[in-house]
Amino acid sequence: MKTIFLTGASGFVGAYLLKLLVEKGYQVRALRRKNSNLLLTEAFHDKVEWITGDINDVDLLDDALQGVDEVYHSAALVSFHAQDAAQMLITNAEGTANLVNAALDASVKKFLHVSSIAALGRKKHQNHYTETAQWENSPLNTHYAISKFKAECEVWRGIEEGLNAVIINPSMILGAGFWQQGTGQFFHLVANRMYFHPRGATAFVDVRDVAEAAYQLMQSPIQAQRFILGHHNIAYKDFFAQIAAALHCAPPSRPLPDWLGEIAWRADYLKSKFFGKKPVLTRELVQNTRNSFTYSSEAIIKAIDFKFRPLEQTIKETAAAYRQSQKDNIGYAMLDF
To answer: What is the domain range of residue 56?
Structure first.
């Protein structure tokens, strides 16, 4: 039986990857931080070999990868706060470099890197993107995007040095997880009466599709390629309307004016200073959702005949999980594959 090493196992994507690998009977060695919240993995926690440490601990990675056949790298710091820019470079870029080096030294058979569509870069005069997109410095690129681009560069560097690797670039990842984090907040916000919607558009993908695509690519002979996972391109207005319909509540019906968005993130910033918590809204986040971008997932559909779940199904199942969580007074949930 193969031994798998997984980073980011306590996170959103990592938890679903871990669930899938455990259900398939693999021996999984999972990296976690000392203070990681493991609630998403509690149902299969005892079936995993946990390693407590940091992706920037080179000696730990060298030891952890001994006897490992395959590496799934999903650990990343996701933030749209400017004060986190330096830490994202340390975690996302330097951490990936460390793991690539350790994988090369350990002669692992295959390495899968969970990147992001953000790593493709965004340009003022380009709205549609495929895997052939070339990075350009642009004011539309967030600090997170820069860190993921540099992380992906480390994987390409590893490939040049002989690493058998493949990259996935998920779009906005949707599914049950923590309802106060990531896209889980969308369901909580709509359920508690959200009046305004962003004016832009983007692509969405089911978190289970991300896990399954990663697994199928790992089992395939494909290497030295990247694949966009963003099959469902939709305006935020229509996206939030679908969430509202699934939750049986009123949808946000008004587009967010630019001036109100500017006031909103500043107000949230002042509120965060008063209460000592990070703001939900930031300048980067508000500005990012004003734009409309579409992405093609035709490459992975053709490469492995991959079939994405319908967006409507993902939203309905996630909404049902949210409603059940509220009844049970639990702040998180996991969907079944």
So the answer is: 3-176+203-232+294-308
